[in-house]
């Protein structure tokens, strides 16, 4: 059992999404996999701007921004290479998601942090649809799963924490039957839902946390966090030529790096996996053959 999470850069356009689908297909030939997907790069920030525009009653600007987001996702769909009926079905599904969001935004008297979480969750819903479609094109049996039906959270909107016991029950009910049938679940990252069903996001970069929560709930052997870097370095390799690659590190060391601002990991991502000693890998989507960095209890 592997939980594979793909970050925003990994699904940044249609060609990259097809590449991700091929990676998933390769891994699924040997292991059961659950895929967690982030929003396309830049999309969450754009949805934040849309929320602010509607909150400030700048409806015209908000509509323009939503139109740009729609075009970005249709462009990615075009790059997937579908034809005729299948293309129109996916395009209709994209349009329906934007229609739902516009309806939600248009009939609000006030906009709260709860509304913010609901709006920004659409980035993952859209990217998951595209990844699901790409895998279907490769003849993979997949199913979209909304993480609001899986991850039960606290009421801390904007930076919620997972309630692991409740989440484990939901995952067993929804995801396990799919895996038993040989289906690849495609799960929205970044958010869950409170006990009363309201969308709650897990903080920026929260898809890492989503992946480790699911690993805990499914007793997975490994989590692979697919990013645009080869693994973890002593410093940002894009800024410092002397940055050293770290092939292995402990949970404690990884957690400290995250708490000290290393953007490679979500600060809460370690917590669910430590008790079950689940291995985390940081790997490069664009160099999948490179081994990456391993986070596990074997390092002190």
TrEMBL record:
Q: What's its catalytic activity?
A: L-aspartate + ATP = 4-phospho-L-aspartate + ADP
Extract the PROSITE patterns matched here: ASPARTOKINASE (PS00324)
What's one Pfam family here?
A: AA_kinase
Q: Name one GO biological process term.
A: homoserine biosynthetic process
The answer to whether keyword rRNA-binding applies is: no
Signal peptide residues are none
Keywords recorded for this protein, A-Z? Amino-acid biosynthesis, ATP-binding, Kinase, Nucleotide-binding, Transferase
- EC number(s) in its UniProt entry? 2.7.2.4
What does the entry list under GO cellular component?
Answer: cytosol
Offer an example of a GO molecular function term for this protein. ATP binding
Q: Does the keyword Amino-acid biosynthesis apply?
A: yes
Q: Where is the Aspartate/glutamate/uridylate kinase domain?
A: 2-284
Gene3D superfamilies cross-referenced by the UniProt entry: Acetylglutamate kinase-like (3.40.1160.10)
Per the record, the similarity remark reads: Belongs to the aspartokinase family.
The record's section on PANTHER family has: ASPARTATE KINASE, ASPARTOKINASE
UniProt name for this protein: Aspartokinase
Native species? Candidatus Gottesmanbacteria bacterium RIFCSPLOWO2_01_FULL_39_12b
């Amino acid at each position: 059992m592997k939980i594979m999470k793909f970050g925003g850069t990994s699904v940044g356009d249609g060609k990259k999404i097809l590449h991700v689908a091929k990676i998933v297909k390769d891994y699924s030939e040997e292991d059961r996999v659950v895929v967690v997907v982030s929003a396309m790069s830049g999309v969450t920030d754009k949805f934040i701007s849309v929320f602010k525009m509607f909150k400030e009653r700048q409806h015209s600007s908000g509509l323009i921004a939503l139109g740009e987001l729609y075009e970005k996702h249709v462009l990615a769909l075009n790059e997937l290479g579908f034809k005729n009926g299948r293309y129109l079905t996916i395009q209709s599904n994209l349009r329906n998601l934007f229609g739902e969001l516009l309806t939600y935004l248009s009939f609000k008297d006030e906009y709260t942090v709860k509304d913010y979480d609901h709006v920004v969750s659409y980035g993952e819903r859209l990217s998951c649809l595209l990844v699901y479609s790409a895998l279907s094109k490769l003849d993979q049996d997949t199913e979209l799963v909304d993480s609001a039906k899986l991850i039960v959270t606290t009421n801390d909107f904007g930076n919620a924490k997972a309630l692991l016991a409740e989440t484990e029950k939901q995952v067993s009910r929804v995801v396990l039957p799919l895996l038993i049938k040989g289906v690849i679940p495609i799960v929205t990252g970044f958010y869950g839902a409170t006990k009363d069903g309201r969308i709650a996001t897990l903080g920026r970069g929260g898809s890492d946390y989503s992946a480790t929560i699911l690993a805990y709930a499914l007793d997975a052997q490994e989590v692979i966090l697919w990013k645009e870097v080869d693994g973890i370095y002593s410093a940002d390799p894009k800024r410092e030529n002397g940055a050293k690659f770290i092939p292995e590190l402990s949970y404690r060391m990884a957690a400290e790096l995250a708490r000290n601002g290393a953007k490679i990991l979500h600060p809460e991502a370690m917590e669910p996996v430590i008790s079950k000693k689940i291995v985390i890998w940081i790997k490069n989507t664009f160099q999948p053959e490179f081994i990456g960095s391993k986070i596990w209890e074997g390092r002190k």
